[in-house]
User: Fold these one by one.
Assistant:
Number 1:
Amino acid sequence: MEDIKSLLPDELKSFMVSLGQPSYRGSQVFSWLHKHLVYSFDDMTNLPLGLRKRLGETAFITSLNILSRTEGRKGTVKYLMETYDKNAVEAVRMEYKYGITACLSTQVGCKMACSFCASGQSGFIRNLTTSEIVDQALKIQKDVSRFSSDIGNIVLMGTGEPLDNYEASVKALRLFNAKEGLGISFRRMAVSTCGLVPGIRRLAEEGIPVTLSISLHAATDDLRDKLMPINRRYPIPELLDAAAFYRERTGRRVTFEYTVIQDVNDSPACARQLAKLLQGQMAHVNLIPFNPIDEREFVRPTIHRMNTFQKILEEASIPTTVRRDLGLDVHAACGQLRPRYCR
């Protein structure tokens, strides 16, 4: 059976031809799936009845089951979605002045075991398929379409490491970009990575100028080793080389995420180390106040310490922003995603 929601427009045309149909039927089916948000071949009313029956025999339409929908403040909504094999993943809808952003998961669980993040606390189960990544966004789009709204931005920043599920993640981005579907510009998409250097270099060669967001969280290898085990494989100098390569190939400025944890990495000395590290990198730093999780005793920094940290970076001419607290009240903020669900 063909996982039809994972097929790019040209692939879907080829599939239609393999069924003895004209290629334009592929465009029709793609539009039904990705624009009209249809989940049954029977509802594709411009297709002949015989073709609808044949599609039902040769293909399937991935559909995640929404187990819960939790609304927070400031327009944030967290969705818990169930996969065909009774696993669950979380996706988040966020509203900004520039539009609606869908934050999507790429894996069930996570291998990376970052010490401040809840996503990997239950371990890694499996990669999501392309269609499972895509359907998270389509379910969110179906929800916001009730208000005549559209998703304008896609970020692969939910549970999992996108570059550890490389093929499915990149193909999902291409599907989001397809004009026959959501038609979202690559420049309005972002991929977050904890620092898989080979994946960063590979992504740089894809020809899709998405924003690369690197989770840094420390300016020295000693501290980053403690916070992020991946640093022992790809230390900071290798990571910065890969970031420079990405910038050169794509022309896009790289964002460095820095979760600020009180008495761990929030001192003025840490800020100065970070400023020195990123000098000349044409980088943007996104400071994230640590979002509490039950399993860790880390503490959220005070506003004063956050402001001091940001001021030191800005005085060193490092462009810096502080991420808004979206989703904190529904445990959907950065580092908090972890499905509390089992069957």
Note: Residues 329-336 have pLDDT under 50 and may be disordered.
Number 2:
Amino acid sequence: MNVAVMRWMYILIALIFSLISVRSYASGPAHDSHEEKEEFGTAEILHHISDDFGLHIGPISIPLPVMLYFPGQGWDVFSSTELHHADEQGLIHGKYLYHHGKLTVAALDAQGHPMVDEHGHPEIAAQEARLINIGGKDVFYNFSITKNVFGMLLSVLLLFFIFRASAQAYARREGMAPKGLQSLLEPLILFVRDDVVKPSIGEKHYRRFMPLMLTIFFFIWINNLLGLIPFLGGLNVTGNIAVTFALAAVVLVVQLAVANKNFWGHIFWFPGVPVPVKLLLLVIELVGLLTKPFSLMIRLFANISAGHIIIMSIIGITFAFQSVVGHTVGVVTSLFTVVMLILELLVAAIQAYIFTLLGSLMLGAAVEEHDHGHEHAH
């Protein structure tokens, strides 16, 4: 296919994708009353980017299973819809408090009522419950399928079926030019291999890290894309710092596991420098060892979250101006939202690329082989 035709095809797909997204973002509040439009603000934005026990797609609520394990007592499993049906005391199942997306065991007084502060805020009671019940029977482990867990499971299933279909196509069409899904995936895989992993790790060692780096790249990229489809419930997997922490921790653990003696030598006893300088470099290198994965975690989390917040803020401005000025300004801001969503499609790929590149550089530093004799001679 002609390159110019493919370019315009991708632009058209991005535009259609963005228009559908804007329509989905606006479908809920756009049909609400005038008072509800004015309430579209910080709470809605924070709710959109935060994790939750259910999926909310416009007026439709899709329940997810809440699965809690109490040591010594067993499991308590129920639907997330029950979290919104508290009794007259504000309790769910007679023992839980659900407030601002957080589920805790209620701290009860002698009469069995939930403990609150002087303002009647239940979250204070939830905090007290964590202190009162530490080490007690009401401590639980949360294994619930939340919105972000659902997003990760969905992305894993998509990746599994996509790459399985591509592998089967290669088996059927061995020696033939790629076609269909193959023609989309092959350039991406070759790009990650030839322009990211191989230059960063080196010709000798890059092959054993290719599965890990490809998995990280496609996992981040597809989750970034899913997060831009609001009719999936506003998934924000890579905008969750726990997820980015886990990804960065995987890279760090692999780096420490495969590191050779040259890597450790340059950290604990840098060659060719005086002893006082060695001690100073030891502190600097140990700090650098932790700050690199930390920057990986923060960079991905901050960029993806910022993109979601900006888009939702523009949509909030749309509703605010429509209620004050009229629909003309709303049309302009809606078009600006389309532009922002197209840019976010680019950011989704760039962030996956940057994370994979910096992770590959970390692994490359761990397996790099140094010729100290040549260095001293030079």
Note: The beta strands are 54-57, 60-63, 65-70, 74-79, 96-99, 102-105, 141-142.
Number 3:
Amino acid sequence: MELLSKLFNLIIVASTLRIATPILLASLGGVMSERSGVINIGLEGMMLMGAFAAAAGSYFLGPWPGLLFGVLVGGLMGLVHAFMSVTVRANQIISATAINILAVGLPNILVPIIWPGHFAMTPVVPVINDINIPIIENIPVIGPVIGHQNPIVYIAFILVPVIHFVLFKTRLGLRIRSVGEHPRAADTLGVNVYRMRYIAVTTSGLLAGLGGAFLSIAYQSQFSMAMTAGRGFIGLAAMIFGRWKPFGALIACLIFGFADAFQAAAQAAGVPVPPDLFLALPYVLTLVALVGLAGKTAVSPAANGKPYV
């Protein structure tokens, strides 16, 4: 019973929300991009560049300017991907892969230049502190879960209904979805296909940059190489699992987040299982979602991955 109480408690639920936050932001970015017809496997690289930019900005200017800097750099990476995919009409997978490679190499070069003597990671930087929500923090059960969290956690979960509303209840969202399903018909009706795809892909970069910033200046207090640890790809899996819908992606991200929180709690509780098995749990769950579940039911937007002329 004592072991079960350590594995299943409110602390794990609160940790699930924190762990799911960067995955959720990447997944929402994937929803925006792919709903417009542009595949974006570069979310991992956009997150990593956002994390680096946020850490650098926080070190020199403070955590909130650092957060803004991280979001903007992620958006810049999204803009680059949009230019290559929409204007140049390059292969979208190759374009996004190039962004991922750039995000691994560029910080590795810049860290020892900006901080002499440091390699592979930055010094400790100022962070965005958690906040308490009055009244809610004192409510039993609910308070320990959502009453004391990081502001970016709240922003991420608020963005779920906001993006759902934009995509499915507004004219802009209808246009984004139309260029992802049938761009020729949308063009015939006067919708600027290029503009809609630029908006969607750049927004996906902004969201991924926010997720990366959370990792370096909220979840941790410094940037380190490959700190995203595949979260961008897990976000893509969550997007597919959720059928390219924000609320579906949210459910998938919570499942992945719980898997990660559970493995950490299991190791801390001393469960007699090799730790590598627990560390692999979120990634195994990703494969199960893609191969065993989503592949049978999920259908991507019809024009996804197809350049439009």
Note: The chain has one domain: 2-297.
Number 4:
Amino acid sequence: MIKGVNRRVIEITGTDSEYFEKAVLYVKADKRDISPALLEDEAREYIGRLSPAKPPVPVPLALKLCAAAISAVAVTLLIYLLISL
């Protein structure tokens, strides 16, 4: 329940979240005189910190296998060079 009628509200519609389309923030009574642009910037920053992190992009199996093969070749070449000296 919201008490009183002098509430200042910031509504963020572009949350960039997979789960939420809108966020509503109530401005503290002692901060009502701050400019709307600054309040919106602060609200977007706050919402950005609350949003769940995007899952990491999975690395394809072929890329993992190529990296492993290159590493094996490099180690083999290094051992060969050390032995031949």
Note: The longest helix spans residues 61-84.
